[in-house]
């Protein structure tokens, strides 16, 4: 074969390769859009999520009936919390081994891992909205949550007696953990007494924990993923989520 023929052959190969890559990218972009729209509809999302199909080439993955990896990002997701809901921010899930049905109507991933966040304002909704009774006619309720440093949550408790609210709220440092499908906030240490309007008020631990400690149920994350771990962060509680045999599109 002459040098000129070889050059022509190389040009043809490069052009065909470019066309294949272009077709592959068009196909993956279309598939990402279809999957995102189906996920939005199935989960009742207000905005279309981001769906990114990893790996190249896409068309050979389709031919094999399984995608290597799919990443899903949801900016805001309203998960159920009992009869109420809690907003989950910046939820990202990495799904691997995604197999889809013959008609492409559904897809399931072998495994999924991800992260998300619940702001302190959202978590505060789980605290008791009504004041809880304390000794000597006093009451207390949680009015604020914030970062306590070193993986702790600072819980701000408002104490009142006889219709008068203490000028200075009580603060306790609390740990946060996962218990089943709930985020649990548990005070590390409870103060033994408190000065209220010139009166030394004893604080039995059980009564105070009725104010400071609470659970936030999160049992409706998308695609059937579950809570795995939680950690206090500057802007809220960071969550790790996980799942197996999870649904991407229905």
From TrEMBL:
Pfam families: LmeA (PF11209). InterPro entries: DUF2993. This is DUF2993 domain-containing protein. It comes from Streptomyces anatolicus.
């Amino acid at each position: 074969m002459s040098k000129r023929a070889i050059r022509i052959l190389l040009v043809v190969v490069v052009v065909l390769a470019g066309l294949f890559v272009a077709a592959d990218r068009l196909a993956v972009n279309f598939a990402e859009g279809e999957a995102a729209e189906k996920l939005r509809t199935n989960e009742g999302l207000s905005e279309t999520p981001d769906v990114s199909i990893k790996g190249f080439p896409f068309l050979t993955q389709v031919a094999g009936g399984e995608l290597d990896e799919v990443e899903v990002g949801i900016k805001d997701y309203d998960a159920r919390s009992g009869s109420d809901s809690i907003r989950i921010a910046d939820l990202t899930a990495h799904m691997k081994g995604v197999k889809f049905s013959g008609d492409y109507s559904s897809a399931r991933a072998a495994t999924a891992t991800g992260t998300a966040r619940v702001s302190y304002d959202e978590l505060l909704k789980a605290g008791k909205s009504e004041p809880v009774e304390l000794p000597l006619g006093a009451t207390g309720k949680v009015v604020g949550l914030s970062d306590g440093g070193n993986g702790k949550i600072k819980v701000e408790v408002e104490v009142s007696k006889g219709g008068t609210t203490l000028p200075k709220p009580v603060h306790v440092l609390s740990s946060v953990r996962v218990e089943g499908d709930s985020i649990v906030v548990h005070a590390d240490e409870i103060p033994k007494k408190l000065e209220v309007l010139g009166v030394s008020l004893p604080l039995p631990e059980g009564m105070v924990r009725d104010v400071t400690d609470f659970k936030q149920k999160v049992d409706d994350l998308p695609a059937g993923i579950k809570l795995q771990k939680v950690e206090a962060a500057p802007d809220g509680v960071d969550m790790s989520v996980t799942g197996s045999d999870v649904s991407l599109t229905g």
